[in-house]
Amino acid sequence: MSRYSAAEIEAKWQEAWSQAELFKAVRSADKPKYYVLEMFPYPSGRIHMGHVRNYTMGDVIARYKLATGHNVLHPMGWDAFGMPAENAAMAIGGHPKDWTYSNIADMRGQMKPLGLSIDWSREFATCDPEYYGQQQALFIDFMDKGLAYRKNAVVNWDPVDMTVLANEQVIDGKGWRSGADVERRELTQWFFKISDYSEELLDALDTLDNWPAKVKLMQANWIGKSRGLQFAFGLIDGPHGTDRIEVYTTRPDTLMGASFVGISPDHPLAKQLERDTPDVAEFCALCRKGGTTAEAIETAEKLGYDTGLRVRHPFDTAWELPVYIANFILMDYGTGAIFGCPAHDQRDFDFATKYDLPINPVFIPTGAEEAPLTQAFTPLKSETVHYVRGFAGEAAQTGDDAVATAIDFCESNGVGQGVTKFRLRDWGLSRQRYWGCPIPIVHCDTCGVVPEKKENLPIELPYDVTFDTPGNPLDRHPTWRNCSCPTCGEPALRETDTMDTFVDSSWYYARFTAPHASTPTDMAEAEYWMNVDQYIGGIEHAILHLLYSRFFARAMQITGHLPPKAIEPFNALFTQGMVTHEIYLTRDAAGRPVYHLPEDVTDGKLADGTAVEIIPSAKMSKSKKNVVDPDQIIAQYGADTARWFVLSDSPPERDVEWTASGAEAAFKHLARVHRIATEAASSDTAANPTEDDALLRAMHKAIHDVTGGVESFGFNASIAKLYAFTNAVAKSKAGAATKQQAAKTLAQLMSPMTPHLSEELWQLLGGDGLIASAPWPQADEAMLVDETVTLPIQINGKRRAEISVPADMPKEEVEKLVLAHDAVIRALDGAQPKKLIVVPGRIVNVVV
RNA sequence: GCGGGCGUGAUGGAAUGGUAGACAUACCAGACUUAAAAUCUGUUGGGCCUUGUGCCCGUGUGGGUUCGAGUCCCACCGCCCGCACCA
User: Fold this and answer.
1) % of chain A exceeding 90 in pLDDT
2) Name one GO cellular component term (predicted).
3) Which residue is nearest to nucleotide B39 (CA to C1')?
4) Residue A608 has what pLDDT?
5) What is the dihedral of CA A735, A740, A746, A747, to 10 degrees?
6) A12 C-beta less than 7 Å away from strand B
7) For the residues A165-176, what does the mean pLDDT come to?
């Protein structure tokens, strides 16, 4: 009897699939299409278990859909632009392009042995000029429709390296390389006008029935629609004729609790004062220290500067409020100015306490007495409270009602107007870096900012660049910038900024439908293949990538690159959990962390005996080096074992901590299946009606349960059922024919997960053609219903006994049986039951 | 700080509001073997005693809704993800 040899089997069947061109996606009218897509990888150089998990899940769906008669599109590509390539060039020399393409070759080489049902003929990398040239064409079309424009935005500025830093490169407010204090500085940048679609992107979330509710909720909160009041405080003796400060508030009902007005350090008034007053300039400079992230700004110590200016309260001109410049007020939300109501906002409360400002409650809990506050009182807006300083509506009303009546009152009294605002900002796409898609723009002294001619695309990155000094190599390239103006033909300069890599990944799904078209898409192909029926990727992309992609689908429709049906490009989304692993690190002389790969760490020590610090269970990331190499598992046990293992241990949506312990067990199981099927194939046991029927029932139950698991992303549940069915087959005394039928079905049910082994067993058991193209087995409903069921009997909700009854026994009969049961008689002790609940086929509860 | 999620045996986890711990790992015991590996079989949440078709406790903590809560609601604790220049 032959042993299970993964290496032999896997190479053989991969070749067979390739010969049969089984996974090549071709448009065809005779089958329904199915487009399954996993988020494409960044070519870091090595695949890790997270990739294996992601692509195996997609592959299960793709193979299952193939078996259920679909025309499947399952492509793969590379999200190939980005910082790590430049960092590598700086750290170890070499060129980002060479580094990236060499990584892609390595990773493709690691992925192919996994036996994924991918149409490799559609592969591309976003750094291919063929791809990014079309992206430049899209940019020009977007610009044409007013969807791309320029304005100022703040960036992280490293004053020592004289360069822009990514948020990731700012550590505790300091530049990662120079260690200098980072400052926020304004630059002119390109933006996509995603804010035009705020309402639309929010409303359309309701149509995404097969998206996780949590993702939709996160996106809705991110878009952040709010209804509020915009109005002005009159400024007393403002500088340079400034006579008012516009504020926006979502809580106009708390206007009578106002105790100060705060403006952003970037507010025009602050900037005016900054020019005139050294103290203000000093304070604003202090506020601009640190990185640009919301997190950095919001967790920084709250600082205020009393400008000495005063404003009048809109309801009482005798009531004056001080004007502070405060570091926690963002210029790009609302008007960049707020009024503080310390009684009902904890941040304002802390601020008022610090600067000794009044704290006057506007409302108090219903039935309570007004009392001094020790912290802000911030009930949900849906809660009814008692207004003690209200000015519109009843004394007792909900916050929501009070806000609405306050807006009405203010509008009818000429104090501002109700407005709807969104938190979503326009998408800044300029990056002052080399390894990205060049923005196809020319700066001409006479014509200004002009788009490049489409026939000149792609604007290719120059190869001859150096990374020995910080900053963008395109800026210091001797000739690349020089060009002629597309409008007047005079000498002009190219834009040297490149695009955010999120742009690359915002339309790759569309490009896969026609990866080599000479326009961004081919409408006939897009019409056929769009939408992505199932998109699979990490929850970390819940907001940005998915929101940007939704915006791009709309923008591409307006510019004629996608059909209307693709307005929401992803019909169904599944967010897999992340693969986590411990992080191992030591410290360099300056105390900065140095990370180590798991394979270099044994028993908490490096090879030279140095003990490492261990950070438990963190997201696998190249930069932290807590990645695990699947190669070794594939070499030792085969791809099927790796695939089976990553699917079996954890629910797909949950994080999984990678451990080596399960791999061997997975291998043993596959070897066992191989053995069982081999035995079945050579069995000559005579038919046995009772045993045969029992095995067939188990088989149909397995078909039903495994199929249900695959369709609902319960791959771990499917695998548990496959274990149970394997045990049933192994133990069964059924006749040879039935056992062979069961073994064939087992192979088929396993085939999306372990395609190579399944092909081998299919052939061994005399299956027709390739299992990969065999029709998926159907469960016979009649074989799924048991004739008798075990009914647990609960007494006061606790299980105390059980009875076995025919599945279709009427409720009344069940009740009689239950009341006659010893345990029930004992519990009742002669009394009548208070209640008797019979849930047919499930449970009985007796309340005594 | 803000937004979102998760929390069940020694471990990964299962469980349309209906028998908590399926399925697996690990451990232990047994069979086979000169031995080991492999394989096969069986046990395993905690406690109590009267060892039973027994009782009590048990799904992060504390409350609540319900005939019945791991599941729904509220509060808290812990961990994870995102926060617009990491991808």
Assistant:
1) 64
2) cytosol
3) A672
4) 72
5) 170
6) no
7) 91
In a domain, A232, yes or no: yes
The distance (Å) linking the CA of A760 with the C1' of B15 is 35
Structure tokens at A142: 């977007």
Cβ neighbors of A410 (< 8 A, separation 6 or more) are A229, A231, A252, A255, A314, A416, A417, A418
The answer to the question of residue A292 being in a domain is yes
- Residues A773 and A795 grouped into a single domain: no
Q: Is A622 flagged in the annotation as binding?
A: yes
Q: Is residue A54 reached through a cis peptide bond, with omega within 30 degrees of 0 on the bond before it?
A: no
Q: How many helices (H) and strands (E) does chain A have?
A: 26, 34
Window A796-815, strand B contacts by Cβ < 7 Å: 796-800, 802
Q: Which helix (H) or strand (E) holds A150?
A: strand A148-158
Split at pLDDT 50, 70, 90, the class of A625 is low
**Strand B contact with A500 (CB < 7 A):** yes
- Tokens, residue A393: 């509506």
Query: In three state form, how does the secondary structure of A303-335 look?
Result: CEEEEEEEEEECCEEEEEEEEEEECCCCCCCCC
Any idea which of A627-641, A664-678, A741-755 has the lowest mean pLDDT?
Answer: A627-641
> Has residue A615 got a pLDDT over 80?
no
For residue range A722-778, list pLDDT tens digits in order: 999 999 999 899 999 999 999 999 999 999 999 999 999 999 999 999 999 999 999
A547: nearest nucleotide, CA–C1' criterion: B84
In the numeric block, the tokens 């019909």 are attached to A571
| Closest-CA residue to A387 (of A419, A363, A414) | A363
Residues A302 and A367 in one domain: yes
For residue A120, what are its two tokens? 């490799």
Does one domain contain both A753 and A697? yes
Mean pLDDT of A711-716: 90
A332 and A259 belong to one structural domain: yes
**CA-wise closest residue to A507 among A83, A25, A126, A104:** A126
Rounded Cα gap, residues A805 and A222, in angstroms: 54
Same domain, A809 and A764: no
**Radius of gyration of the CA atoms of chain A, in A:** 33
N- to C-terminal Cα separation, chain A: 62
Look at the block and give the residue holding tokens 């999306």: A752
Residue A35 DSSP one-character state: E
Q: Do A277 and A411 reside in the same domain of the chain?
A: yes
Closest-approach nucleotide to residue A428, Cα vs C1' = B84
In whole angstroms, what is the distance from residue A83 CA to residue A502 CA?
Answer: 12
Structure confidence at residue A629 (pLDDT): 73
Alpha helices (runs of H) in A114-173, residue ranges in sequence order = 129-144
Measured CA to C1', the nucleotide nearest A505 is B87
Q: What is the pLDDT of residue A1?
A: 46
Distance, Å, A783 CA → B17 C1': 28
Cβ atoms of A227 and A418 closer than 8 Å:
yes
The domain that contains A798 carries what CATH number? 3.10.20.590
Q: Which residue is listed with tokens 């990645």? A: A627
Q: How far apart are CA A123 and CA A769, in angstroms?
A: 28
Å: A847 CA to B64 C1': 21
**Which position has the token pair 């304004």?**
A186
Question: Helices marked H in A168-225 — which ranges?
Answer: 198-203, 213-223
Residues A779 and A792 in one domain: no
ipTM for the predicted complex comes to 0.92
The answer to whether the C-beta of A218 is closer than 7 A to strand B is yes
Based on the domain organization, do A829 and A742 belong to the same domain?
no
Task: Compute the distance between CA of residue A502 and CA of residue A192 in angstroms, rounded to an integer.
Answer: 12
Which tops the pLDDT comparison, A190 or A609?
Answer: A190
Question: Is residue A311 within 8 Å of A235, Cβ to Cβ?
Answer: yes
Q: Which residues in 385-444 of chain A line strand B, with CB less than 7 A from it? A: 423-425, 427-432
Domain span at residue A842? 788-847
> Would you call A72 helix, strand, or coil by DSSP?
strand
Query: Is residue A134 a part of any domain in this protein?
Result: no
